[in-house]
Amino acid sequence: MAKVVGDLRQRRKVEHVAAVRALGDHPASTNWFEDVSLVPCCAPELAVDEISIATEVCGVTLPSPIVINAMTGGADEVYAINRSLAAAARRHGLAIALGSGTAGVRSPEVAYTYSVVREMHPDGVVIANVGMGTDAETAKAAIDIVGAQLLQVHWNVAQEMFMAEGDRDFRGALAKLEDVVQRVGVPVIAKEVGQGIAAEQAVQFVECGVRGIDVGGRGGTNFIAVEAWRRGLQLAESWQNWGLSTAASLAEVIDAVGNRADIFASGGMRTADEIVKAMAMGAKAVGIAGPLVRLLGQPDGEAALDRYLEELHAELRTLLVLTGCRTWADLRKKPVVVMGRLREWLLARGRN
Ligand code: FNR
């Protein structure tokens, strides 16, 4: 039985990559950052050399706010992806989160598909990942496989509900989170995977002791669509819009707990413009997942990934010049203009 479950888990890892590559981002589902505007500064009084894009999250300093977000590990077929992602993380000075580590703990023969990330990025920030409801021993073991400095605990109820073999009982996960926070010995980040976190749950997560929240909002990779693809299910269009857009989730969560936890923006973050808007709203870092695994699927994958990350970093500096800011701390003091649906959403939720 354990072997059957292990095989199913490994096949799922491979199918997730295939689905994300086949589906791409849905054109009609956006993260709402188009409703956010920065105010340009035409007289910046700055030299590009003065600009720093470094940031700090949960007590860890990062040379760049871009985090390669949790994707994979746990099957032979995804080893090369983790190896390439970690090599890119080292070249560009990025933190990298791993896919859920439970497979590596339960099936030690695939632990090498995770530990390669530490081998390729020996001095970098590596973030381990486990699912909601995971016990502290398993979480600790997942951290130890890669010597992670931080742990993500992901909440993915919508994905589980659409997964044929998914969980159907979500009780007790908050108590488990509290136990994990107390026992793993590294700061813990609560994370969604593409449906967003509302202010109410952000408060609950912080009360469990998390130091970070990754909003994992709607507008990029959609695990409802990914699971439907795996089952050959025809999905009603409305499911493309289930959840909180990343910009709405980010605004809610920063308003609710931004002074008690470091907030990561993720979910459809693709351009420097979106990253800088999120940082201006108060995010401390920004996660990107789907596009990176799609770039690696191209024939010149590693080079394409390098070009993408290089260009993002160059444009982050450009946008800091164009807003007259030397650091992210300067940017957070600048005005951000919110319009359209995002403004209406925040007004309706009583959060301005
Ligand atoms: C993911 N994601 C994810 N998240 C998580 O917490 N644990 C996991 O194991 C995985 N697995 C995974 C596999 C693949 C192939 C992808 C693309 C993504 C979710 C990911 O971290 C992120 O929250 C979402 O993908 C939304 O970000 P993007 O893809 O829109 O940038």
Q: Overview of this structure, please?
A:
Mg(2+) binds at residue 160. Substrate binds at residues 12-13, 159. Its EC number is 5.3.3.2. This is Isopentenyl-diphosphate delta-isomerase. The chain is of the alpha/beta class. The protein is 46% helix and 13% strand. It has helices spanning 2-23, 79-92, 102-106, 112-120, 136-146, 157-162, 173-183, 199-207, 223-231, 246-257, 272-281, 290-296, 301-322, 328-332, 340-348, and strands at 36-38, 55-57, 60-62, 66-68, 95-97, 126-131, 150-155, 188-192, 212-214, 262-266, 285-288, 336-338. It has an 8-stranded parallel beta barrel with strand order 4-5-6-7-8-9-10-11, surrounded by 7 helices. A two-stranded antiparallel ribbon has the order 1-12. A two-stranded antiparallel ribbon has the order 2-3. A hairpin with a 2-residue loop joins β2 (55-57) and β3 (60-62). The longest helix is centred in the N-terminal third of the chain and has 22 residues, at 2-23. The chain is globular. The site of ligand FNR has 26 residues, from α1, β7 and α12.
Over the alpha carbons, how many angstroms does the gyration radius reach? 19 Å
Give me the count of strands. Answer: 12
Categorize the overall geometry.
globular
Largest sheet: 8 strands, parallel, barrel
* Category from helices, strands and their pairing: alpha/beta
